[in-house]
Design a protein that fits this description.
The complex is a heterodimer of chains A (288) and B (319). Chain A has twelve helices and no strands. Chain A is mainly α. Chain B has three domains: 61 residues, no CATH class; 29 residues, no CATH class; 223 residues, MetI-like fold. Chain B is built from 16 helices and two strands. Chain B has a two-stranded antiparallel sheet with strand order 1-2. Chain B is globular, with a radius of gyration of 29 Å. The chains are: A mainly alpha (288), B mainly alpha (319).
């Protein structure tokens, strides 16, 4: 056996298993998926016809898909802002000289470990039972009906739950960034007479801006792909976001072709978000 | 307490007690040092107020947990009459019922097998691949690495429908081998979805390991396989912990993949919770007891692994 061949064999022995799994689990289904978008397959019947780009054209007229797309955008915008603002505020608080800071960090991070599905069930109880009974106790009418009853308030409810889940997570990222802000810079500027606000605005904020970019994209991608919480908290038509819409189209309505066409559109959007993120990261690296 | 200057004077006068004086001097210098710090970031009343605010916010933040616990111990009637207060009598039987109807032990065992098995496989397979991808500088190696990076972009929803179909096709009846509805099938799928990010994390870490260590091992007669297990894998420990934490939390909480591929045959905790909650939506006391049971394992994991979890999450996010 030549040395070259042996080297090649070792390479594939080490890399092969991982590549094999990736191709079997992600690669082949991805290609199959694109193929299905050109058919009218229903998932069970072995016979199906080619329909060309009809599935994609159909999406242009699919009002539920448009609606899902719109509320996904609304939900994503609201939750990205809410999560980052709360996360940053918490991080700022727990990086001050508090005696309880470790305890606070532990506590705020806790909800993040619970899966979206279980979180949805927990909050279903809070919205449907606890808040309504608080409403009847205190006589506040707006609490009287559950937020999950109405489409608009149900989206707000999902934003609240996501904020509860992710604020602690984003907090951890901001904490790491805030702790890396050099103390001597802050001391120097304080001695030079900078006010607390000025220190925050002109030293802390610029120093943590890379973490802001990371957190924004992270919450953006997570919110956009959100499924579990949507499924367990509010799965009605008025609150059906993109991921849930794809799931229902394929597995409830049994329109595999249309469902997969939606999934491909979904992929294009998510991929664009990721590529923009990569672009920003690269740009920042160049600047540094 | 005497001031700094006074101590020095005392030190000059009392010649007999040198050691005591010196000790006292350093002690005072320490006090002064602390005093200087105090002016910049000391414990002022503002900090105290912030501390109070922080703890109040935390209590509010964790209120849902309190509500879950108290309501899991009430009778159904009491939940409607008194949702926020403590229960009159602790109804522990809710937990017994929830355990029985949810099949919590079975679900826990399944979740455990799938999580531990998948994470162990992901660690071994990705560490091996990542090491080779860093050390082999050929064009193939670069292309393979970019394939893994590109695969990270693909969201689960984009492949889930054909995946279910494809995995259904992969079966050999004679050997009773099938990908759908089996532990190993699900583990294999997690391996496929999990390796990309893990390879990416390992890749970044391995780049910082000096190649001289491996060259020394090779000269001493280690094969590639031995070099990896005896030299490289132990060095990878910090990043392995990160990879482990990130994958374990994801797999433990994952719902949709097991729902589509093993639902009905194997119950993991999220699946058991989904069935249970669907059946007992109006029986909140049982639902709450079930939810508490479902989150206990991950909470225990959190209290023991807290530092690693937070470190792993930060690393995984920033990369």
């Amino acid at each position: 056996m030549t040395r070259k061949l042996k080297e090649k064999l070792t390479f594939w022995a080490f890399v092969g298993p991982a590549l094999f799994c990736l191709l079997f689990v992600v690669g082949i289904p991805f290609v199959m998926g694109i193929y299905y978008t050109f058919t009218n397959w229903n998932g069970a019947n072995p016979a199906y016809d080619f329909v060309g780009i009809q599935n994609y054209l159909g999406l242009l007229k699919d009002s539920q898909f448009h609606y899902s797309f719109m509320i996904t955008l609304i939900y994503t915008t609201l939750s990205v802002v809410t999560i980052n603002v709360i996360g940053f505020a918490l991080a700022y608080m727990v990086t001050r000289n508090l005696k309880s800071r470790n305890f606070l960090r532990t506590g705020f991070f806790m909800p993040n470990l619970i899966g979206g599905l279980i979180l949805g069930f927990i909050w279903q109880f809070l919205f449907n039972s606890v808040f309504t009974s608080l409403g009847s106790l205190t006589g506040i009418e707006s609490l009287g009906t559950s937020m999950l009853q109405n489409g608009n308030t149900a989206i707000i409810a999902m934003v609240i739950v996501s904020a509860w889940q992710y604020a602690g997570y984003i907090m951890v990222i901001y904490v790491a960034a805030l702790e890396n802000v050099p103390q001597d810079l802050i001391e120097a500027s304080t001695i030079d007479g900078a006010s607390k606000w000025n220190v925050f605005r002109h030293i802390t904020l610029p120093m943590v801006s890379p973490a802001v970019t990371v957190s924004l994209f992270l919450t953006l991608a997570n919110s956009f792909k959100m499924f579990d919480l949507n499924f367990s908290l509010a799965s009605g038509k008025t609150t059906e976001m993109l991921a849930l819409n794809i799931y229902k189209e394929a597995f409830v309505m049994n329109n595999m072709g249309i469902g997969q066409a939606k999934a491909v559109m979904f992929f294009i959007i998510v991929a664009t978000i990721s590529l923009v993120q990569v672009y920003f990261n690269k740009k920042r690296e160049v600047e540094l | 307490m005497p001031k700094f200057e006074e101590t020095i004077e005392l030190g000059n006068e009392a010649t007999g007690a040198q050691t005591w004086q010196n000790k006292s001097l350093t002690q005072h210098m320490r006090t002064i040092g602390r005093g200087r710090l105090k002016t910049l970031h000391g414990y002022s009343w503002q900090t105290g107020a912030l501390e109070f605010l922080g703890i109040s916010v935390l209590i509010l933040y964790l209120l849902p947990f309190y509500l879950m616990v108290v309501n899991s111990l009430k009778t159904r009637r009491e939940i409607f009459d008194n949702t926020t207060g403590l229960p009159e009598v602790f109804a522990w039987e809710n937990y017994l019922q929830a355990m029985e109807r949810m099949g919590i032990f079975d679900a826990f065992a399944n979740s455990m097998i799938i999580t531990v098995g998948s994470v162990a496989l992901i660690i071994v397979v990705s560490a091996l691949a990542a090491w080779m991808l860093v050390r082999n500088q050929s064009k193939t190696s670069k292309v393979v690495f970019y394939i893994f990076v590109a695969a990270m972009i693909i969201p689960f929803q984009a492949v889930m429908l054909p995946l279910v179909k494809w995995m259904g096709m992969l079966k050999i009846d004679v050997f009773n081998f099938q990908m759908i509805g089996t532990h190993y099938g699900l583990m294999f799928m997690y391996l496929g979805f999990g390796t990309s990010m893990s390879i990416f994390l390992y890749h970044g870490f391995i780049k910082s390991i000096p190649i001289e260590i491996e060259e020394a091992a090779r000269i001493d007669g280690c094969s590639k396989w031995q070099t990896f297990w005896y030299i490289i894998f132990p060095i990878l420990k910090p990043i392995t912990v990160t990879v482990m934490v990130l994958n374990a939390i994801w797999i433990w909480n994952d719902f949709l993949l097991p729902f589509l591929t093993v639902g009905g045959t194997i119950n993991t905790i999220p699946l058991a919770m989904n069935n249970f909650f669907g059946a007992f939506t109006k029986q909140w006391e049982l639902a709450m007891a079930g939810l508490i049971l479902a989150i206990i394992p991950i909470m225990i994991f959190y209290f023991f692994m807290q530092k690693h979890i937070i470190k792993g999450i930060t690393q995984g996010a920033v990369k």
